[in-house]
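Course assignment 3, question 2. Fill in each field.
Student: A.L.
Task: Predict the tertiary structure for the chain below.
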Amino acid sequence: MKLVRTLIGMARPVWWRVGVSVLVGVVRIAASLSFVASSKLLIDIATRNSDVPLRTGIAIFVGILAVQLLSTLFANWWDSYTHVKSQNIMRRALFEKVMKSRWDGRERFLSGDAVNRLEEDIRVVSELVVERVPSIVLTLVQLVAASVYLMLMAPGLLWVILILTFSMVFGSKMFFRKLRELMGKIRARESEIQQLMQESLQNRVLMLTLTTVERVVDKMGWLQADVEDNTRRRLNYNAVARGLMFFGFQAGHAATLIWGVVGIFNGTVTYGMMTAFMQLVGQVQRPVAELGRQIPAIIQAITSVDRVMELMELEQEPALEPVVLTDAPAIEVSGVTYTYPGVPEPVLSNFSCKFPAGQLSVIAGPTGIGKSTLIRLVLGLLKPSAGSVTVGGFPASAAMRGNFQYIPQGNSLLSGTIRSNLLLACPDATEAQMRQALDTAMAQFVFSLPSGLDTPCGEDGSGLSEGQCQRIAIARALLHPGGILLLDESTSALDSDTEAKLLDRITGTYKGRKTILFVSHRERVLSHADNIVKIS
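Answer field:
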């Protein structure tokens, strides 16, 4: 079964930890049954039904209590640590898989939905692996062990308890499929709520300006109402299922009490046996109750596994050995056709062009004509439907991407500091190298800020102007090693004077040393071009 194989694969790194949890649990079960036996022994000693010395009986009883205490303390510590370790391992592996998935021009999952799966669904799957599965194994061990013990003492009573308990459990099973369906709807709505909150907070100024805050809040209320409605229905089904099981357990306790009373009255049961019966009925019924309690949680976990599997099934970029070019390479696009998935017409059709080595080439054309698509093909993010793209004679792919100094459209700064953003491109960059890159990018203003390089950048660079963010992004790209400088509308937020100085510095510093590709329709950029590629 695909779901089971996926779960086993995700759990493989922590299997040994789960094994320790099970082993400790077996010790606790043995101690629990030993406690029943020692309790019976003490009472039989007190009622003169056993010849064992009282001091010996007390010593055995205290020793078993100590084992129970120590094993419980260790189990709680170990299980909690294993849960955190498991979440971290699973979350990191899945995050890496999502980050390395092939990009086809659009993300299959909205960011809020993907984050919800990485956070909440991984938490639930981790609980399944390190808590639910070991708990079920130990529950079955306890059920078998307690049943064997009770069978040795009163086989008839055991069958009465098992029949009552399991009949109620199977009676509640009819609700489990509906519980899984409702859980799936709840998880889907929770993802929508997270996406709505994330996008609204990221674009709060836009929402305030368009006076759409009330509509957004109303939409959130509608989504929450749907979650509440499905939760109420799930709780109703769950309550009926639990009610059936509770009735079975109460009936089992009543049957045990009557059985023991009749046995004492007839002289076939001692007070110690009666005590053991009352303890063992709990140790037989509790595992069944635990199995019943785990079923809704397992249903929820299966829903989460399904959602995690969708991320795991994302197509991955091939793992290629990086190719590092020492010179400024030429780039050639030959007869390329590319069509985005779900779009009937190609955005580029039999398109060819050349970007000569060491020259500044400008890609120009109206909005929506395919300029950014061409850049993504050159970067190896997209694979052409027909034709080829080569970088320095090598096919454009992930292997060539390390040769690019890339500045994307828009604000691409991450939350942190200016320094952390710069070091993202070159972790070993020195203060002098960062200063030089900022100077070339016309971003000397950084050093006039109160905290300089350690000035905080909010999400999407908030706290800085759009033009300042663009210049820091250019400086970040310049720190990255590579023979190709690729700027995608990277001066759109700059005033004409700053743009002119920036272009002069870039061409003066890198022309002839790097192959420069500039996506722009601005006249000042075009005036610096050695080569203009027009897409129409």
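Instructor remarks: The chain has 15 helices and eleven strands. The chain has a mean pLDDT of 84.
Grade: pending
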